[in-house]
Structure to design on (272 residues):
């Protein structure tokens, strides 16, 4: 069994605040990927399955690898080409949360980029999942692609205990609004590209106590794996290298960046 990722005490140990370790891309070598992350300096992985059919696998990864776990229904499973969720899944989510006591709800949110999206259906699922988070007093991991203002509208209406705005790519004003509501902003592979000027600008400007680092593995490959659209599999084992690039962009020492961003994850998830 791969050693538990949780509890590593070194100050320069990283936390991957957004990963999909149970994706099929890892089926052939999941143990090796988790071990490589652990051995490379990743103290914990926040694992987000994104569909009720994947919750069992996430439960196994939680037991096997010590993953921090969020249960939720990703908006891309709600509408668009990959839609396969039903409204009955909200009751199933509530049952899972009550029984398994995850660290957060997610990945949930709105995606107004996916082809043929149904905005009303996405918003219904998002609101219902925010109610689950509110009722269980859990933070949330947010998907906010081209939907920042609509997500903020729901967050102001249904109050939750903060969380993470994953792969944040909004404006400085929108970033400030998420921070006011108790959210940290997630930065990862996109910010490793020199041409990602807006994301890099945000990374420099956002208060460090509201920055977290993520891979979104197997997605959003960093610059050292090729182009933004390379399709190469990302991995939580790459987090320290991604984090080092982000620290350079931010203009802070790598060890301090790792320590502060990891402390931010622990604060949001009430890990002490």
């Amino acid at each position: 069994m791969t050693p538990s990722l949780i509890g590593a005490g070194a100050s320069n140990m990283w936390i991957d605040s957004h990963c999909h370790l149970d994706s099929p891309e890892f089926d052939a070598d999941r143990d090796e990927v988790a071990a490589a992350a652990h051995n490379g300096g990743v103290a914990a992985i926040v694992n987000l399955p994104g569909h009720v059919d994947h919750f069992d696998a996430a439960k196994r990864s939680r037991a096997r690898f010590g993953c921090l776990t969020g249960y939720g229904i990703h908006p891309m499973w709600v509408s668009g080409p990959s839609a396969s969720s039903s409204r009955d899944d909200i009751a199933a989510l509530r049952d899972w949360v009550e029984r398994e006591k995850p660290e957060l709800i997610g990945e949930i949110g709105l995606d107004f980029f996916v082809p043929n999206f149904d905005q009303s259906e996405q918003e219904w699922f998002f609101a219902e999942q925010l109610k689950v988070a509110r009722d269980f007093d859990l933070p949330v991991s947010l998907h906010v692609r081209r939907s920042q203002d609509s997500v903020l509208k729901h967050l102001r209406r249904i109050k939750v205990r903060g969380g993470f705005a994953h792969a944040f790519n909004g404006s400085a004003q929108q970033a400030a609004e998420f921070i006011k509501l108790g959210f940290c902003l997630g930065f990862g592979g996109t910010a490793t590209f020199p041409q990602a000027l807006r994301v890099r600008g945000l990374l420099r400007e956002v208060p460090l106590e509201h920055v977290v680092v993520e891979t979104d593995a197997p997605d959003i490959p960093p610059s050292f794996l090729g182009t933004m659209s390379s399709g190469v599999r990302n991995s939580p084992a790459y987090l320290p290298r991604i984090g080092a690039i982000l620290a350079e962009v931010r203009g802070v020492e790598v060890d301090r960046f790792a320590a502060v961003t990891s402390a931010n994850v622990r604060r949001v998830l009430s890990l002490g």
